[in-house]
Amino acid sequence: MYSIIIKELNFYLHKTLNINEIKCKEMEYFQHSSKEVEWNRFVPETRQIKIILNKSLRKGEHIEIKFKYSGVLKLHEEIKVNNIDERWVELSSHSGWHPLYEKLDKSVFKVELNLGRDYEVCGYPYAKPYGDKWILSSDSMAADCVIVASKELKVIGDTAVDNGVRVYYVGSEYEDAAQKIYQSIKLILNKIEYIICPITNINLAFIIAPRTEGGGYCRPELIVISNKLINSNFKQLKFITHELSHIWWSQASWSTWEDWLNESFAEYTTLMVIREVYGEEEFDKLIQDYNAESKGLPPIYGINRNHEMANPVLYKKGPIILHQLEQMLGEDKFKQFLRNVYQNKISSTNELVNELTAIASDVVVNKFIDSLKE
Ligand SMILES: [Zn+2]
């Protein structure tokens, strides 16, 4: 019988933070590298913390590790999606502000922020005021902990309850844009619900970050965009739709090639929404572009998520493969397939093929598998 045995654990933490103490009964010793270690292109500038264990761990075994660390987080200016200064705080796993396990496995979080109540805080997990502090506490396993804070943060939308859609922005000049985005979100959610299936209890914070550079990102209940996007209706709709689609498409691991189940599905859902809103012609034009951009790209199947062509493969070629599948199945059956994939919480390509086998002929299934491998 084969079982996974682990004798060391590797964590990563931003290079400007220092370990004061690590407490763990199963630890022999730890090493904190003095130099930056490259391990994941989404999280630059980290140093490795290698924990050598005094016993071998088997899969499923629990241990407790307590890290005590401190420092002044100084981020490289190239990391546009994280920031920490007087006016704007934006922290996520991109900065490695807390120890990250090497496989970026999901975790539970409880974070206490001693910021004072003159700051408005918004985050994932949901940030609740508590005395003069803020608490972010997750009910279930989460892939990231995001903290956004500013004294100037304003909010519109369904603000009476922690349920509904809220749009956050900084600076009164963005109030109109925030209102428009709130209306767009409602419209887009409607369209995606029509294409895939309705969801209950949407709790969503949408943040217009006061920065023009760096892209946006999405966590299950939180979406961040840069304010550059608010001037283009089409780009904005396309981007917001992609991010909102992740409410349905976020089950697969985002550090392996299975991330195509998140990214290609979110992007193709976006194209389907564009077909609904702007019509067949606009949709066909995008399909042509994506086709052209997919020429010569490596296969989706097994592609390393850090491969230099991984993004065009997942964002351009993947949607083309899903478009071909829609053409083979017909629109209604394809929508049924999307619904099944969502409702059955499919998180691997093997499971996806099983779902397809249940509703499609062998010829279609084989063509689909071939398209992933070519
Ligand atoms: Zn995405």
Model description:
The protein has 374 residues and is an alpha+beta fold. It folds into three domains: 1-74, no CATH class; 79-96 and 103-231, no CATH class; 257-373, Neutral Protease, domain 2 (Orthogonal Bundle). Helix content is 33%, strand content 26%. It is built from eight helices and 18 strands. It has helices at residues 175-195, 233-245, 260-278, 280-294, 310-329, 331-343, 349-359, 362-373, and strands at residues 5-14, 18-23, 27-32, 46-58, 66-70, 83-84, 89-91, 100-101, 110-113, 120-124, 127-130, 133-137, 146-150, 153-157, 164-170, 203-209, 217-219, 222-226. The chain has a five-stranded mixed beta sheet, with helices on one face. Strands 3-4-1-8 form a four-stranded antiparallel beta sheet, with no helix packed on it. The chain has a four-stranded antiparallel beta sheet with strand order 6-7-13-10, with no helix packed on it. Strand 15, helix 1 (175-195) and strand 16 form a beta-alpha-beta unit. It is globular and about 60 Å long. The mean pLDDT is 92. The chain binds zinc ion (ZN).
Query: How are helices and strands ordered from N to C?
Result: EEEEEEEEEEEEEEEHEEEHHHHHHH
Number of strands: 18
Distinct ligands, ions and cofactors found in the model: zinc ion
Rg calculated over all Cα atoms? 22 Å
Provide the spatial order of strands within the biggest beta sheet.
14-15-16-18-17
**Structural class by helix and strand composition:** alpha+beta
Helix content: 25-40%
Average the pLDDT over all residues and give the rounded result.
92
Largest sheet properties: 5 strands, mixed
